[in-house]
Description:
The protein is α/β, with parallel strands linked by helices and 217 residues long. The protein folds into two domains: 4-14 and 87-216, Rossmann fold (3-Layer(aba) Sandwich), CATH 3.40.50; 17-83, Orthogonal Bundle (DNA polymerase, domain 1), CATH 1.10.150.240. It is 43% helix and 11% strand. It contains nine helices and six strands; from the N terminus they run E-H-H-H-H-H-E-H-E-H-E-H-E-E-H. The chain has helices at residues 17-30, 37-40, 48-58, 65-83, 95-104, 118-125, 148-157, 171-179, 208-216; strands spanning 4-7, 109-112, 133-135, 164-168, 183-187, 198-200. The chain has a six-stranded parallel β-sheet with strand order 3-2-1-4-5-6. Helix 1 crosses helix 4 (65-83). The protein is globular. Bound molecules: 1,6-di-O-phosphono-beta-D-glucopyranose and magnesium ion. Magnesium ion is lined by residues 8, 10-12, 44-45, 169-170, 173.
Amino acid sequence: MKKGIIFDLDGVIVDTAKYHYLAWKKLANQLGFEFTKNQNELFKGVSRKVCLEILLEIGKVSATKEQFDIWMIEKNLDYLKYIENMDASEILPDVPKILQFLKENKIPIALGSASKNARSILEKVGLLPYFDAIVDGNNVTKAKPDPEVFLLAAKQLGVSAHDCVVFEDAVAGVEAANAAKMISIGIGDRNVLSEAQFNFKDFTEISIQFIEVLIKN
Ligand code: B16
Ligand code: MG
């Protein structure tokens, strides 16, 4: 059976969480409260809208719909400034090696990310040509842990869901992959991502032999 591989973006291909953090912190400070790195953990893999809802809850700030939308735009404009100069040096270790191996073996590759900025980030770091399909925050109506993003990616690759493998760093993303009946591979802390079928700290721990087994079975 033809296999497909789906990558999350933030925390798997690049570490954009640090830039999201700076932009959310700036907004929190502007609204008169602190936002810590620990609290930022709650935001990983979560849509921009839900992040702002959580942030306002943390700061006990209420907002009209108009104000909410303005803050979403402001946060994104700040985030775009932080990521403006991203380049290939920000790709996480050994990601290109795995992408190259998959390409050489003609395995279709998709991105399955919550970010509406995903395509431009892939372009900045020079990885766009590897991807046969990109499904991101602009294409889905239901955020992870809903499986929509990964099911759509499988569809665009022309691969059955149960023949797809997902690399994810967020609990909600692992849940989404499991709900889609895909093979879930957690990248990061195995205690946090305990629902994943396989766990690795990062791609430096993943051997080509492991990928070979994944794409053959
Ligand atoms: P944007 P992923 C997610 O990326 C981030 O982890 C999350 O913190 C962010 O809020 C979300 O993208 C939306 O990003 O504001 O750029 O649309 O891990 O799903 O690739
Ligand atoms: Mg992620």
